[in-house]
Amino acid sequence: MKVAHVLAVESRSKIGSRYAKRERAAGRLPAVMYGHGQPPSHVTVSAHEAIRYIEGGERVFTVQQKGQKDETVILKDLQFDYLGTNIVHLDLARVSLDEKIESKVPVKLVGESIGLKKAGAILLHPTPLVTLRCTVLALPDHVDVDISQLDVDHAVSAAEIKLPAGVELASDPHDIVAAIQITKEEVATAEATAVDGAPAQPEVITAKKPAEGEAAAGDKKGAAPAKDAKGGGDKKK
Fold it and tell me: Do 55 and 37 contact (CB within 8 A), yes or no?
C-alpha cells in the first residue's frame, strides 16, 4: 500500500468537550496521536478532508505539523455523536511503514448473487469490517468478497476472504460477512399455501360435548349433589 494522503494537523492546547465543540463548529475535527514511546499529542484536522478520506476507505496517513517532522499514523478508532451518524473525534496511532500492525478494513461485496433472484431473498452483510495483520505498506484499503455464486441459505465467512500476499486475517474466521436468506414474510406466505395453491384453512378446535347425564365443564357449581343408590330418588307412594 502506498501512503498517498497527507493530513495537515494543528496543535490544540485546550482540551475538553466545550473546546472540542468549538473546533467542530469551526470545521475542525479533534484528534489525538499516540504511540512509539511519545506522549499523546492533541491536534485538530480539517473535518471535510479527514472524513472524505475515511469514507473512501483510507486508514494510513502522513501527518504534517508546522515545526515538526512528518509522521506516519494509522486510524485506530472513531468516535461518533450520540446519534451515531457524525464523526466527532479521531484516534491516530504512530507507526513505522515496515512494522506489523492490526487494523480494520472495509469488506466490499462484489457481483450479483444468484440467490437474490429468488422471491423474498435478501442479502445480509453482518460483518462490514474485518481485522487484518500485516505491515503498514501491505495494508489494503479494503477487501473484496465475490458473492455472485452465493445462494439462499448459504453464507461466506471471514476465513473465505482472499487476502493479498503478506496479509493475515486477525478477525474471528467464523464471522459471517455475507449471507442470503428468505424473509420471514415470504416463508409465512409459503407455509399458509396448500399444495394445490389454495390457502390452507385453519383448524377449528371445539370443546368436547359432555355425554348425556354428565355436567358440562365449569358447570359444577350449584349442581345438585348426586344421591347414592340406596337412598336415591323419591319413592313412589
Answer: no
The three cell numbers locating residue 227: 344421591
Cα distance between residue 92 and residue 78, in whole Å? 9
According to CATH, what is the number of the domain 102-189?
2.170.120.20
Report the C-alpha dihedral over residues 11, 95, 60, 108, rounded to 10 degrees.
-140
3-state secondary structure of 34: strand
Q: Model confidence over 38-83: pLDDT tens digits?
A: 999 999 999 999 999 988 888 899 999 998 899 999 998 999 988 8
Amino acid 221: pLDDT: 45
Residue 180's nearest CA partner among 120, 102, 111 is 120
CATH of 6-95, one of 2.40.50.140, 3.30.1300.10, 2.40.240.10, 4.10.400.10: 2.40.240.10
Distances (CA, A) of 230 to 43, 224, 226, 227: 104, 17, 12, 8
pTM: 0.65
43-57, 159-173, 214-228, range with the lowest pLDDT: 214-228
